[in-house]
Amino acid sequence: MTVKIAIDGPAGAGKSTVAKKLAKLLNYTYIDTGAMYRAITYKAIQEKVNLIEENKIADIAQSADIILEGEKIFLDGKDISEEIRKPGVSEKVSLVSKIPKVREILVQKQRKIAEGKNVVMDGRDIGTVVLPDAQFKFFLTASLEERAKRRYRELKTKNVNVSYYEVLKEIENRDTIDSQRDTSPLKIAEDSIVIDTTYLSEEEVVEKLYNIIKEGLKGEI
């Protein structure tokens, strides 16, 4: 039996960091679906495609060769792990990820990557759309201000010149787009366990999830 773990939540809730650490702890494959949407956004920007040209962006999604290796992401053979985290991509990724055809294409790619493996997959529609049959579904959340603080600190460590207010507005805007899009909106799956991470450290969240999974698998891990 393969085990699928879905971790959803809004921007800055700690999904990726927690998912990476949890996957390492469990020795499972980590799949960062958000990075895949960022890769398509990055390529569209590089090719100077207008983000309202949905068919062109869908073509990019279809033809793009995306490879995930742990925390690294390669697009058409190039390591773009750092580039996709910069503000220019962050500001536009929700516009790309709300395109129905792009979501359809990437969901199929995500499912294919997960086939036959024990995986920890994080994103915004994993428990509801990508892996609806996942044995464990978590929805991580935190206050808007706390999420903005986390993202701001992360960007500053990477020497990205941005203000806290800019990050706050960007996350607020992404929340609106992600929750109101017609295709696969950000929402809590009925069988998800909701965890507010506002006052929890990354380690505390990982431990909480690990213990729930361990109990659910009856000590098989």
TrEMBL record:
The keyword Hydrolase does not apply. Its EC number is 2.7.4.25. SUPFAM superfamilies: P-loop containing nucleoside triphosphate hydrolases. InterPro entries: Cytidylate_kin (IPR003136), Cytidylate_kinase_dom (IPR011994), P-loop_NTPase (IPR027417). Pfam families: Cytidylate_kin. It comes from the Bacteria. Keywords: ATP-binding, Cytoplasm, Kinase, Nucleotide-binding, Transferase. Signal peptide: none annotated. Residues 5-214 form the Cytidylate kinase domain. CDD domains: CMPK (cd02020). GO terms for biological process: nucleobase-containing small molecule interconversion; pyrimidine nucleotide metabolic process. ATP binds at G9, P10, A11, G12, A13, G14, K15, S16, T17. PANTHER family: CYTIDYLATE KINASE, CYTIDYLATE KINASE/PANTOATE-BETA-ALANINE LIGASE. This is Cytidylate kinase. The lineage of its organism: Bacteria, Bacillati, Bacillota, Clostridia, Thermoanaerobacterales.
